Amino acid sequence: MNPDQLLQLDRKHVWHPYSGMGTGPVFPVVGAEAVRLTLADGRQLIDGMASWWCAIHGYRHPVLDKAVEDQLGNMAHVMFGGLTHPPAVKLARELVKLTPTPLEKVFFTDSGSVAVEVAMKMAIQYWHSLGQSRQHFLTVRNGYHGDTFGAMSVCDPVTGMHTLFQGSLARQFFAPPPEPAFGETCEDRHLMEFEGLMERHHQDIAAVILEPIVQGAGGMRFYSADYLRRVRRLCDEHDVLLILDEIATGFGRTGKLFACEHGAVSPDILCLGKALTGGYMTLAATLATRRISDAISNHPPGVFMHGPTFMANPLACNLALASIGLLLDSHWQASVARIQKTLESGLAPCRDLPGVKEVRVLGAIGVVELKQPVDMQQIQPAFVDRGVWVRPFGRLVYLMPPFIINDDDLNTLCQAVVQVIHQHT
Ligand SMILES: *Cc1c(COP(=O)(O)O)cnc(C)c1O
Question: What domain count does the chain have?
Fold first, then answer.
């Protein structure tokens, strides 16, 4: 099949994320190594997206390749009902060790959205076990937690398209997005509405759910660690659980292993995904405290009502172990700090462009917020023509490269962003 035939069939039969059938440019990719994607026509692109936060070690890493091969020699998959295996148990132990102390029970799922569903179901079932019916969640606007129905119900109502799915979505409580930016202090007034909702409705609220520090796909904003700390305190005062969704931020992206560490906050339930396997396979995890697992296990029905077919897939678990090992053995903090510095200097010229509203950088995340949404039909090929892979959405052009990227490649990425925004906004 030549690239033209491939694209023709793709347009005819294949959906892409957030796309109409056959709309928008897509590029056939035939390989990837380290920080470069190879297109079918032989062109190489420097990857600025890490495949949506995931590929922190780059592509075709020998250690990760080997983790798959080794596990293939044992078994690719086996059901998790009534069976267990070393990759799952070792990974659970490792995740418990790395995450904040009270988290010690791990539920494996196959995608981030499902990890969020599981977190929400756990919170509801926890209160059910204690004889309370708490069926709702409190969150902030501009959030993103996934595309399944439970997750969608706590996404930003506008970008999460609540009107379109109105009849099917659970109704949740929404406070304004966190106003103080990262590094700023949080005043009482910043939490007034949040606190008001909590005071009025805490008996109906199973949990608060937030993305700590970085609001990802809902707007790429970085907010105050102080805000997060105060939310934790409010949850404690009103006896409401706290779910932190670290699916995007986990495994070093913000400069801490987990973003909640910026505020020294520990959640009752934690969702992990995306970079968990270094971007090789789909795997996610929901961690909970013993208080939650005890309540659920010791009261009728006595079982947690969830069990995905591919739960704890051994290939994915072995990969996650290898990826975490690689990360911890590397100088990831120095790499992320270096990337932050290069993104700051490299993207700074964007501040002088008339189409740009704000430039912000945290850890290995660089964001250029524009005044108007980009035209993807134009801007996507413009990036490819410059030899980089950058995929903007709405008014946001952003970079979150693999941690292994060197400064030359990162500067090329930044220059492409500056030039493309200059020419196309
Ligand atoms: C990507 C993401 C999800 C959803 O994960 P999927 O694997 O796409 O289902 C949930 N929460 C956050 C914060 C995310 O960034």
Answer: 2
